[in-house]
Amino acid sequence: MEVLAFNLNNAKAIYRLDSSGMMTALGGLAGQCVDACWNLTAGIEPPPIEAISHIVVTGLGGSAIGGDLLRVYCHDKIPVPVTVNRHYTLPSFVGRDTLVFAVSYSGNTEETLSAYEDARRRESAIVVITSGGKLKEMALRDGVTLITIPGGIAPRAATGFLFIPTLRVMERLGFLPGMEGSIATMIDHLKELWEKLKPETPITENLAKQLAQKLFNRIPVIWGTSGSTEVVAQRWKGQINENTKAPAYWNVFPELNHNEIVGFQVPGELLKKLHLVMLRDEEDHPRVQKRIDITKEIIKDRVGGISEVYASGEGDLSRLYSLIYLGDCTSVYLAALYGVDPGPVKVIDRLKQELQSCGPVCGLP
Hints:
Layout: H1 11-17, H2 22-27, H3 29-40, E1 54-58, H4 65-74, E2 82-85, E3 98-104, H5 110-121, E4 125-130, H6 133-142, E5 145-148, H7 159-172, H8 179-197, H9 207-215, E6 219-225, H10 230-244, E7 249-253, H11 268-271, E8 274-280, H12 286-299, E9 305-310, H13 316-337, H14 346-357
Parallel strand pairs: 1-2, 1-3, 3-4, 4-5, 6-7, 6-8, 8-9
Helix pairs in contact: 3-7, 3-8, 4-7, 4-10, 8-13, 9-13, 10-13
């Protein structure tokens, strides 16, 4: 075990390092979900549409994660495909029979603004989810369905505001009946998990802190399962990138058994710097679970370490979020171990500023 300069049992030091309140926002996730489910979407009517052949969520970064969650959650529950779009334009199939969720926490993400205008040109049914900015102005101008969410936190810390409204819209469209009860169950589980994961809970009882210690001075590789924990693996990777300011990589079973597993032979010294996190759900396909067991045995002596973490809670939504919550907290604790403030993302800010200096996106003011 590495000698750690930062004491993760010092809750005050964790909060002090966290200038943007990322951990505080995590503590408020259950409250976010309550607000999103019963307040922000109260009285919201879905846009008029005769038939829906496809659902598209367009967004980037933290604002797109809600789309990924919706895609995975719905894949075995509704007869209509859900696609996540991370581009300036929409796929060619998008038209009048497509429901488009345009999601931008700030309301100023240029790719999303461009895709929104593309959806308007194609006469798609649109639901906008944003805290303000140009996207809200455009939605009000065009009279499209608008769900305004609170601002003031980082998009990656606002999954409750960005994801739950999509579920409520889908429920009102008749795709996901009983969603309100599932969300309530998930919220109760989030409250239980926070007591186990919060900074005041000591390392000996806090799985997120234990994982952060194992990932310290290692390169995290996160493996999930296609159709269930794939979005969680992607989320862990993104949270470690943004909160910890460190590299991380992800892949999914069973696909990785057909390629990536071969890449654990050389260079041996570098492989020992990898720490694998295998995200597991007892509801996953039995053959996938067997694949995970066999894969672990094949590579366990070639990497620096392997951790297996299991989903918990009642129902698909609770299990999905249990692993997301664990990863979010782990990334902030890992940042603390490196002495890094998890909030600022200066590299992204610089990129946006330099893009602005190049002029507006074609077709946007």
